[in-house]
Specification:
By secondary structure, the protein is α/β, with parallel strands linked by helices. The chain is 58% helix and 16% strand. Strands 10-11-13-14-15-16-17-18 form an 8-stranded mixed β-barrel. A 5-stranded mixed β-sheet has the order 4-5-3-8-9, with helices on both faces. Strand 17, helix 18 and strand 18 form a beta-alpha-beta unit. Helix 2 packs across helix 3, helix 5 packs across helix 6 and helix 9 packs across helix 10. The longest helix is centred in the first third of the chain and has 78 residues. Bound molecules: ligand C2E and calcium ion (CA) (2 copies).
């Protein structure tokens, strides 16, 4: 609401009728002069009372004339009173009284009553003047009061307008504030239930949806499934490529999940590199597997960030309502267990939850606890498996393999405890201990027997991506006085596939330090033969799964032959792992394989046997 201000009428309007004293006197003088002139005119008429007079062509009697003159005198008197108020009124009364006096003299002097109408007219004038004066006086004071009231109203009005302006400004401010509050509220609501990086529903929302679905499915006796998705080696991506690239990869994965999800289902981000998919339909296991596999393939497609290409994989764990859990907590926990079982068996796969997984989880947590004190309790030790030259049969070197004789768990295989040490980060401490212990021991033996064997040590992906890794290696070399030309690090190909540039850089620096690099378990992962050219490696270790298939099919044999041929053409030494029988040995020899390692030639040796062999 807005009151418009009317500034047209001012409270001073009434006073405008007032005249200056000089002009008032002039006005009185002029009007009096006219009045007196008319009086003489009247007398003149009276002297010619018998004659007729002409005015503007009209023939008028002297009575008509005296009437007109009387009217004019009344008008002058009234005009004087109106225009000059008190002064005018007094002047008019005086003039009319004079008129009366003259008329009375006339009557007395002539003895005729013809001037009587004039006397009545003069009296009439006097009364009119008095009435006008008092009326005008009343009118003026009324206008004055009105003007004062108007002034009051105007100032009140101005005050109201000013406060109205203020109020409208405050109102605007309030509207703005309210809008901001609403936006903030919406933002807060969004942040409470949605992930800001990917725009997907967050953990809270997923839990809410699961709670609702369990309630609904319980009533309707229907089933549904929950899929836990975790990106493989994401921590290393973040450590090596930085959080910005990590975030972009998460966004790409989120987009791919959104694109592939059925409109009936819900996809969300549980946090970090963990995503969730609620399949709100009762599907068969085969159908769920097919559905999960479509997401696995979508994630595995090349990711391009900052003009760099990345290959990302993910592990999937599935729990089904109600068989694998009747509560949200159980469904989440069991899908997580299933997902971790995939992680442990090589990642990049899909697994349904089963009760045995819980048992292995228990075992795993016991291993994890035991590992924490394994180094300090001196429960770890090393064995050495020799590698032989194919042509001469001489020993090329030894691969150091870690062993753990736990006080509480007994002998635990490295295939079991190494992945757990990697996942928990304990491998960093254990890895340094292995490096230091084995180099120290080897150095002692070198001094005693002047041996020139290679010492090959397995380096985990978790170790190599540590920013302090190179510094640590240099320090151990220095402390143990070990000659780096005898040292070879074995790394698995997965590390090179996931983080090519950074790792290639580290490998080059290790080579500059004189350490040679072996690519372990070749053939189990995704490294293609073509990929070999790009890698700074000196040795290639063909995985024992390949070797074990020798003789099975011609095709398998041919692949091994091609690998050896290509590696040689790139100047890379080839070692075949897991050689267990003579047929394999003969075939590998025929294919010009450089070195062999396996139970056929020697099992990993404990220190005593190892000392005997080289001594
Ligand atoms: P790997 O690096 O491929 O090591 C070779 C594995 O194959 C060893 O198992 C060895 O005992 C076994 N092996 C050797 N020849 C034969 C054969 O003819 N037949 C069969 N069936 N097996 C053979 P191990 O010692 O149990 O180690 C298993 C894995 O644990 C290793 O595979 C390696 O990935 C990891 N590992 C062992 N020690 C270390 C270590 O000190 N550091 C790290 N990072 N990983 C280690
Ligand atoms: Ca190895
Ligand atoms: Ca191997």
């Amino acid at each position: 609401m807005h009151i418009s201000r009317n500034t047209d009428v001012q409270p001073t309007d009434i006073s405008m009728t007032e005249k200056s004293p000089a002009s008032e006197w002039i006005m009185i003088a002029v009007c009096s002069a006219f009045y007196i002139a008319l009086s003489f005119f009247l007398r003149d008429i009276s002297t010619h009372s018998t004659e007729q007079m002409k005015l503007f062509g009209m023939v008028l009697s002297n009575h008509d004339f005296s009437g007109i003159v009387s009217q004019a005198q009344i008008l002058f008197s009234a005009y004087l009173t109106i225009s000059t108020r008190k002064k005018g009124m007094i002047a008019a009364i005086l003039l009319n009284l004079t008129g009366i006096v003259f008329a009375l003299f006339g009557i007395i002097y002539t003895g005729e009553l013809y001037a009587l109408s004039g006397i009545i007219s003069y009296f009439g004038s006097i009364i009119i003047c008095i009435v006008i004066y008092y009326y005008k006086k009343g009118l003026l004071s009324y206008f004055k009061r009105l003007s004062e009231q108007k002034e009051e109203i105007t100032s009140l009005y101005e005050e109201i307008s000013a406060s109205q302006d203020k109020m409208s400004k405050q109102n605007e401010q309030l509207v703005k504030y309210n809008r901001l509050m609403n936006e903030n509220k919406k933002q807060l609501e969004y942040m409470a239930f949605y992930d800001t990086l990917t725009g997907l529903p967050n953990r809270k929302m997923i839990i809410k949806k699961l709670d609702m679905l369990i309630h609904y499915s319980g009533i309707n006796n229907t089933g549904f499934s929950f899929i836990y998705i975790d990106i493989d080696n994401f921590k290393e991506v973040n450590d090596l490529m930085g959080h910005q690239i990590g975030d972009k990869i998460l966004q790409i994965v989120a987009e791919r999940l959104k694109k592939g999800v059925d409109e009936r289902d819900v996809v969300g981000r549980l946090g970090g590199d963990e995503f969730a998919l609620i399949v709100r339909r009762e599907l068969s296991r085969d159908e769920i597997l097919k559905y999960a596999d479509s997401f696995k393939s979508a994630i595995a497609e090349v990711c391009t960030c900052d003009n760099k290409e990345f290959y990302i994989n993910a592990s999937f764990g599935i729990s089904i309502f109600p068989v694998d859990g009747e509560t949200t907590e159980d469904l989440l926990k069991n899908a997580d267990i299933a997902m971790h079982s995939i992680k442990r068996s090589g990642k990049n796969g899909i697994s349904f939850f089963c009760s045995e997984m819980q048992i292995s989880l228990l075992k795993r947590s016991r291993i994890e606890n035991g590992l924490k004190s394994a180094v300090n309790n001196e429960e770890l030790y090393l064995v050495f498996q020799p590698q032989y030259y194919c042509d001469t049969g001489r020993i090329r070197g030894f691969e150091a393999l870690c062993r753990w004789n736990s006080e509480s768990l007994g002998h635990v295989s490295p295939a079991q405890f190494i992945p757990i040490a990697e996942e928990t980060g304990l491998i960093i401490e254990i890895g340094e201990w292995i490096l230091r212990t084995v180099m120290h021991r080897f150095r002692e033996m070198q001094e005693a027997s002047r041996m020139d064997f290679k010492l090959t040590i397995n380096i985990s992906v978790v170790q190599i991506v540590q920013p302090s890794f190179l510094r640590m290696v240099k320090k151990v070399l220095q402390d143990t006085q070990f000659d780096s030309k005898y040292l070879e690090f074995e790394i698995t190909e997965s590390v090179l596939i996931s983080y090519p540039e950074k790792v290639v850089d580290t490998l080059n620096q290790l080579r500059e330090m004189g350490i040679s690099i072996a690519l372990d378990d070749f053939g189990t992962g995704y490294a293609s033969l073509k990929y070999l050219q790009m890698l700074p490696i000196d040795t290639l270790k063909i995985d024992r799964t390949f070797v074990s298939r020798i003789g099975e099919t011609d095709h398998g044999n041919q692949i091994i032959g091609s690998i050896i041929w290509l590696a040689h053409s790139l100047g890379i030494t080839v070692i075949a792992e897991g050689v267990e029988n003579a047929e394999q040995l003969e075939y590998l020899k025929k294919q010009n394989c450089d070195c062999l390692q396996g139970y056929l030639l020697s099992r990993p040796l404990e220190e005593e046997q190892f000392s005997k062999l080289i001594g």
